[in-house]
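Recap from last week: sequence in, structure out.
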Amino acid sequence: MSDTLHNLLFLDIDGVLTSYSSGTSYLCEDPERYHPDATCKANLLRIAAGVSGLKVVVHSAWVNRMNDEHPSFEYRGKVYESPLPEVSEWLKEYDLLLGYTAVGRLDKDGNKITKKTKIINWLDGHRGMLGPGSKALVLDDDVSFNDLPSINSITFSNNIVDDLKFLPISHTTGLTEEDAVRAIEYFKQ
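Predicted structure tokens:
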């Protein structure tokens, strides 16, 4: 890998690598099936195959629990184990994992830190890694990213990367083949 990055993907887990329609989402209320969906994983690999030098930063809420002894959460009386270790190992296997956004839910003043803020902070802290013409794409089903330009809109320059966009993913389907094609087209523009 060269010293600079040009293609960076910020990846959420729930609703992107899991999906309601496949029964792998925690919303399906079956802890035994709560794992990344094979189709969603294949679509992420499709993006990686189509985008030269792609690296992934995981920005899931699960990152907040990565240092817990038994990272899990309870939803409607059922306990769900974190998919982060499984996702991390899988991304490492394909040499895609670059890192994670910061751990923590609150800033020093006790205010909630949004995933979007964590991404901007990660980019700011890694300026030296990002080369000219660098692009970053956020894959998430979280509507709090709606104020970032979508993949179909004009370029947003944040003085850190040349282009940062948001590709909204439906938590119903997770990452689809159509989403993968759109992501590849974005990086190749």
